[in-house]
Amino acid sequence: MASKQKINSNLIFIHSLFRSGSTYFYSALKRTDLFHIYHEPFHEVLADLPKNWEGLTGRTNEFKKILRHEFLDGGYFDEYLQILPNIQSTFDSNFSYNLFFMDSSSDSKPFRSYIDSLIEESPKHPILQCTRSTGRISWLKQNYVANHVFLLRNPWDQWYSYQVDKHIPATIRLIYSSPNIPTVLQKIMDDCEFSPIHLSGVSNQLEYCYANPIKPSMEYYLFFALWLYSYITALEECDLIINMDRVSIDKKEKSSVEISLHNLGIKNVNLSDCELHRTTFSLKEQSIYSEIENKVLDIFSQNKIEKKSLAFVTNYLVEQRIYSFSAFTKGQAVPYRLLEDSIRLRARVFKLRDEMTLILNPKIELNKVLEVVKERNEYIEHLEQSIVKRDTNISEVLEVVKERNEYIEHLEKVIANNNEKK
To answer: Less CB within 10 Å around the terminal CB: N or C of the chain?
Structure first.
């Protein structure tokens, strides 16, 4: 947990990426009954909320089950009910991703008007809990006197949790398709040959992502870079960083965070039931992730990213790998077998996604197809050589057998001659 001293104000922003424990945190804030919490105020679904309130909120239990949010009391957007007319007149779905990265040159008047309306209509202490804001924290600080909190989760559990629903991983590609993307993330896109989605409308972009999946390795590459960018931004811009993994297992950390929140004006928050799931990965899998992470870290280090922040995050990753990647041995029968099954299942899932990418993506590059064909032909050639070698060995064996039989026949003649002489 990292914190900075700042004078408390009436407005609070909670920032995170998806699947970081943000919905749990929203639930914990609601229980205090002290705040009006706008959950995911930049979510694209808000554009449809005024016209389709019953349809969307009627699926709340379905969403809770899919997203593993059964703990949530009430719905995701309860606080918006009384201001639906304002939402209809001020919210624009372009806020979700086109303005994900903002600086002083961004066309921000409509965006600011929307935030202003949320603050003005709030009957209690307003909190904006955001999962689409880490690229605009600096802009928000320039335009509002507020406190900023960031929810941190280790990248392996967070990305693996992204796979719970097809919408969440698709948002990664929408974020990278937004204008005004930082130079370092543009370098990431160039390095992995990611092509932005040039379609109008969030729904069209999402449908494109569903129909044209990318390989898990590219998705994790993009995700980890975004995770790294968000964490470094939080280190430099936020007043409090909450390590949700640590809060989930350490009672002292829970108490410490509750005190820090209190000091920022977020009072009476009880985190005693915070229990984010932590997956146990194998050391066999660590190299897969580390190879990608090292490439990303290297690109960040070459692009004028604050060295102190980068070193801090690198140390965090080293520390967290100890908890996430384990080396069970065959002697530990039950945990070893369960872990081995999980490894094979995850590997198979990602293999299937690779195959789906080849099948479903009509624009896959020809050279990649040719590469697959080349590998297949090389394998066939290898098999043919093995067969020739086997046949050669068989011929050599037959020759040896022939020579042995001729020698035996010779010996039998010698023995027969000796018997006749006797």
So the answer is: C
* Distance between CA atoms of residues 344 and 347, nearest Å: 5
Distance CA 209, CA 197 (A): 9
| Residues paired with 373 in a beta bridge | none
pLDDT above 70: percentage of residues in the chain: 79
Over residues 333-377, the pLDDT tens digits come to 556 556 655 666 666 566 666 666 666 665 555 556 566 566 666
If you compute the radius of gyration of the chain from its CA atoms, what whole number of angstroms results? 30
The closest alpha carbon to 148, from 243, 19, 26, 241, belongs to 241
pLDDT, tens only, 270-288: 999 999 988 888 888 899 9
What is the torsional sign of CA 56, 57, 59, 60?
positive
- Cβ(327)–Cβ(180) under 8 Å? no
In 191-309, where do the E strands start and end? 240-243, 281-282
- pTM, 2 dp: 0.78
Confirm if 257 and 251 have CB atoms less than 8 A apart: no
Q: Confirm if 137 and 234 have CB atoms less than 8 A apart.
A: yes
Secondary structure (3-state) at 114: helix
Inter-helix orientation angle 167-176/216-237, to 10°: 70
3-state DSSP assignment of residue 178: coil
- Give the tokens for residue 340: 């081995």
Interval 212-246: pLDDT, tens: 999 999 999 999 999 999 999 999 999 999 999 99
Dihedral sign for Cα 131, 68, 21, 351, please.
Answer: negative
- For residues 295-306, average pLDDT: 90
Question: Does 219 or 397 have the greater pLDDT score?
Answer: 219
Angle subtended at Cα 242 by Cα 36 and Cα 313, rounded to the nearest 5 degrees? 140
Whether the predicted pLDDT of 7 surpasses 50: no
Read off the tokens for 163. 């796979």
Place of tokens 């808000």: 46
Which helix (H) or strand (E) segment holds residue 150: the answer is strand 146-152
